[in-house]
Write the structure tokens for this entry.
Amino acid sequence: MSEITLLSWNFENNGGNDPAKRLKAHELLVSLNPQIVFRQEMWGADANGNTILYELEHVLGLRGWLGPESCTAVFADPRVFRPVREWDKAAPMWVLPPTALIMRYLPAGDEAMPLALVSYHLNYASGTNRVAESEWVSTWADKKWTAPQGETVRMPCLAAGDNNSYPVPGVEGDPALPVLEQIDDRPHRLHRSYVGAGGTRVMDTRPDEALRTAGLEDVARYWATARRGDKRAVSRTVNACATHGPDSRVDRVYGTTDLLTAVTGVDVVEVPEDVSDHHIVRVTLDADCISDVLNHQTIARAV
């Protein structure tokens, strides 16, 4: 069985001004043999005519697309994926704009549906803004494509990034929600919570709820429950610290339900704290199953 490996990583500050650190970090990604990489915090990658972006393309052996303001990027294997279109501006309120593409999955054939790939980074400080941003992420699960037979179909979508908020509780092994009063940093209490019913401030899970309402399922949640009960899928993606509270799973990959049958594994690859403050989320997908999904939906919805 051939597989597609998808990685999502918020590499802290894109390594800052340390080229050696940046190289080492991306060599780690290469060792995981990805065909898709969703990156966040691509700061400075657009300087001097996208010099750092092209540097990272060379290291990864993948083609890269840099989102507005160097907040995010998508890298993909050009032997497997070909771009159909991209968005220069996703929505007016984005603080850290996403990278969003419609991509052709080449093994599926020329008449198969393409799919949407989105790398995003929700706002750090405002729960209100995060809700709006997550609602806009959901719009890529509603993109249409005209099949060769002339019928309009809704394309599958994979979206991954730093949510700066928590998944709705309910999965065994998922890190517990922080207790607001036990977060030492007072501004961070505000940043990761909102005023709920009755005026009580609660931890922010609204982006997760919004995306799953829209049919974008948390693939780690799916793998840890519906399929294998594998708790590694819901491992922490950020370590506990004195100011921000306990271990948390703020980095997540979401997929439309039609792609869930292609998932063959989800886990988190931990990296040293001196490399980044976030770990790498890894998802593997059955390559043949992706082709079947894209072709089956084209046929099924076009008759």
